[in-house]
Amino acid sequence: MVETTTGDERDGRERIVIELAEVAAEVKGCPKCELARTRTNAVPGDGNPNARVMLIGEGPGYYEDRDGRPFVGNAGKFLNELLAKAGLSRDEVFVTNVVKCRPPGNRDPLPDEMAACAPYLERQIAAIDPEIIVTLGRFSMSRWFPGERISKIHGHAKRDGKRLIVPMYHPAAALHQAALRGAIEDDFAQLPKILAELEANREAATEASRPPDQQMTLF
Ligand code: URA
Ligand code: SF4
Fold first, then answer.
1. How far apart are CA 49 and CA 208, in angstroms?
2. For residue 102, what are the contacts with CB-CB under 8 A and spacing of at least 6?
3. Domain extent listing, the chain
4. 62-75 per-position pLDDT tens digit
5. What is the pLDDT of residue 216?
6. Half-sphere exposure at residue 187, Cβ-oriented, CA atoms within 13 angstroms
7. At the top level of its lineage, which domain of life is listed (predicted)?
8. Which of 38, 113, 136, 142 could form a disulfide with 57 if both were Cys (CB 3.0 to 4.6 A apart)?
9. CB within 6 Å of ligand 2 — which residues?
10. What pTM value is reported for the model?
11. How far is the centre of ligand 1, averaged over its atoms, from the C-alpha of 81 (Å)?
């Protein structure tokens, strides 16, 4: 298939890049919650603006706070391995967190901190408009699955409009617990199939939307 890029698509891509850069700049100077006072660097998130898959973790840890980039410590190395097994690289996905600044001592983010930070995540989701969102851990899961238990629903995709949300364990937890590690590996291994199905559905929908005299015939 020959990929063609129209002027409108190019403009759309530029708009996404600009919006993501605006969000990142605001995050870097954000004073909206207590975490601003203890962070070294805010961590807006990074990756491909045209990603089909977006992954949302909990919050920056020590190395992320030091470098200003998401998932660069041990959990990040494990995440890269999981992505590689799913045939994905960090360059083709977008990775961010529920809170963009490190909770001191890696404590859980507090409800008012998550609420203060949520508009940044919402703008990132709206700009990238990914086909799949993978939630990593229970804090990012709870936006789409309030009250659910991760042990029960991990790996079970749910539709949110045209998007699929796939809840998964947090790689930092799964790294050191054998049972969770097997589960997160299995859940990541499903991603290629889900992506292929979405692609097939999209192609079928495109074909069906063509005028009948331009449709490919199967006979
Ligand atoms: N854990 C997270 O939830 N996010 C990171 O960016 C790193 C570790
Ligand atoms: Fe702002 Fe979010 Fe950082 Fe709080 S965690 S200071 S809301 S960017």
1. 28
2. 35, 38, 39, 40, 43, 59, 60, 61, 62, 64, 65
3. 23-197
4. 999 999 999 999 99
5. 57
6. 27
7. Bacteria
8. 136
9. 27, 30, 32-33, 35-36, 42, 99-101, 113, 116-117
10. 0.93
11. 15
